[in-house]
């Protein structure tokens, strides 16, 4: 009798584990949501410079990107890839605001590529 209960409990546990495996989002799915994909654009330096002026990036990062409230970005390309910069501008980070409602994905991608070339 006790054996029968034990195997019943075990069966239920196994079924629950299988159901959870399929219903919980996988690690990969979560990672993808956290990391937006950068659209491919041809870098336009003049457009990037006007975007960072118009969006107030320079008010926090300095007019020469030398840093102020935000960190210095003059050599940001040696630390971060365009994709990583794209994610930070899109989602924000700490004191850095998110720009996903202010800029088009392509504009963010252009600025990200422009910054990634600063090494
Ligand atoms: C309100 C001030 C503010 C504005 C506006 C702002 N930033 Fe930032 N930014 C920050 C701060 C503060 C950080 C540091 C965040 C952290 O690491 O916690 C940061 C971080 C960054 C980083 C990562 C730097 C690193 O060393 O990790 C990049 C790239 C960046 N900002 C680009 C931009 C761009 C491009 C814009 C305009 C579209 C912008 N920021 C606008 C404050 C700002």
TrEMBL record:
Spell out the Pfam families in the cross-references.
Answer: Cytochrome_CBB3 (PF13442)
SUPFAM superfamilies referenced in this protein's UniProt entry, alphabetically: Cytochrome c (SSF46626)
Coiled-coil ranges per UniProt: none
Query: What UniProt keywords are attached to this protein's entry?
Result: Electron transport, Heme, Iron, Membrane, Metal-binding, Transmembrane, Transmembrane helix, Transport
Query: Where are the bilayer-spanning segments?
Result: 6-25
Domain Cytochrome c spans what residues?
Answer: 43-119
Q: What is this protein called?
A: Cytochrome c
Q: Which organism is it from?
A: Paenibacillus cineris
Record gene name: cccA
């Amino acid at each position: 009798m006790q054996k029968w209960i034990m195997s019943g409990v075990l069966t239920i546990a196994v079924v629950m584990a299988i159901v959870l495996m399929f219903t919980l989002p996988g690690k990969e799915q979560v990672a993808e949501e956290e990391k937006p994909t950068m659209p491919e654009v041809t870098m336009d330096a003049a457009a990037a410079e006007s975007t960072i002026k118009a969006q107030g990036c320079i008010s926090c990062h300095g007019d020469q990107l030398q840093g102020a409230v935000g960190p210095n970005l003059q050599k940001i390309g040696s630390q971060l890839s365009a994709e990583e910069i794209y994610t930070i501008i899109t989602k924000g980070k700490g004191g850095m605001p998110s720009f996903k409602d202010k800029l088009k994905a392509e504009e963010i991608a252009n600025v990200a590529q422009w910054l990634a070339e600063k090494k």
